[in-house]
Amino acid sequence: MDNLKLNVSLLRQRVPNLTSAAKSVGLRPATVSNLCTGKIPVGRAEVRTIAALAALAKCSLDELILRGDRIDMIETGIKPLDLFAPIAKGGTVGLVARPGMGQLVLLGELFHHFKRDGYMTILLKPEGEYPELQDMLDDVERVAYSIEEVYDVAVSTPPGKEMMLAADREHVLTGKIYELQERLQQEGHQHVTTFLVDLKGAVVDEDIPYGPLETLWYFDADLAARHMFPAVNPIYSTSSVLEGAHLDQNHASVQQRAQKLLRRYRELRSLVQVRGLQAIPASETEVYQRGERLEAYLTQPFYIAKAYSGREGERVPLQDTLHDVQAILNGSMDHRDVESLTWIGKIN
C-alpha cells in the first residue's frame, strides 16, 4: 500500500478549481492538498475521499491512483528543502509566502544551482514591474512573455534535457499553466519541473494553494522576521517524495525525528520568550537547546546574496545534511554555541 500515489497531473487537468470542487462534495481542502503532496498516504485515506475525487475528475480509481511509479528527487544542496520537502522531478512546486519572506531569493538561488548543473532555466515573466526579479535574471537562460513562448522554448530544447520553469500565480488562475503542462506531457516533453510563486501574497490565505501539487514550501513569518533564511517552515512544508516507497529510510527517519524536535522546540520557545528559560522543566531544557541548534543549522548562506550578506554561498549535499542533523539530534553538537552553527554550510 505504500507505493500508491494520486495522479496529481490528472487532477490538475480535470479539476482546475479543486478548492471549490472539494468543498462542494463535502471534502476538506486541506485533506485533499495533503493527499496530493503525500503528507497523507493514499493507503490511509478514507475510501469515500478517494471515490469523491475520482467522481470530480470523472475517472476510474485505476486512473486516479498510480501504483509503483517511482518519484525521483532533485537534490538542491539547500538544507531545509532537501531534508523536509524535496523537489519531485517533473512535478510542480508551490511557494506559499507573503512579500518580504525571501521566496524570490530562494527561487533565484535554486536557478543559480540549476543553471550550473546544466538545466534549461525559463522564467515566464509576470505582468507588471517587479524589480526584485532582476536578481535572478542572470541565472535564467530564457525569459518568456507568454505561455506559447514557453511552449516554443520547451519543444526546441534537446530531448532529455531537464527544464526548470518559474511562473506567477496569474497563469494558475487562468488555467493556462496546467494546459501547457498537459500539452507538453502528451507530446512526450516530460522533463519540465515547474515552480509557482504568488508575488502578491494572496495565496497564503488559500485552502489549496495553486491546486494539486507535488511539493509545497510554506514560508514562516517568524523565521523571516528573525532573518533565519531560507525561511521555509520545516513542519508544514511537504512533498510527495516523502512517501515511504520513494524515500531512503535513513532520510525518512532523520526527517521525522527533526520535525518532532522542531515541533516541540517551537512550543517551548513561546514559553521561553515570555518567561525565560527557567519557565520550562529541566527535563525539556535539552530539547529546547537542541532545537535551537537545529534551527540555526538550517540557515544557509546563498551565492546570489553574497553582495548583501558578505558571506560566501554554500551548497550542502544531502548526505552531509543528514549526517549533521543526526549529530545534532543525538547530542554530538551539544558543546557547540548556537552562533557557530548559524549561517554555515555543513558542520566542519
From TrEMBL:
InterPro entries, A to Z: ATP-synt_VA_C (IPR055190), ATPase_a/bsu_AS (IPR020003), ATPase_alpha/beta_chains (IPR050053), ATPase_F1/V1_b/a_C (IPR024034), P-loop_NTPase (IPR027417)
Domain ATP synthase A/B type C-terminal: 246-319
Lineage: superkingdom: Bacteria
Entry keyword Metal-binding: no
Main location: membrane
A Pfam family per the record: ATP-synt_VA_C
Coiled coil segments of this chain: none
One Gene Ontology term of the molecular function aspect: ATP binding
Location in or out of the cell: Membrane
Record-level GO cellular component terms: proton-transporting ATP synthase complex
Alphabetized UniProt keyword annotations: ATP synthesis, ATP-binding, CF(1), Ion transport, Membrane, Nucleotide-binding, Translocase, Transport
Family named by the database record: Belongs to the ATPase alpha/beta chains family.
Protein name, entry field: H+transporting two-sector ATPase alpha/beta subunit domain protein
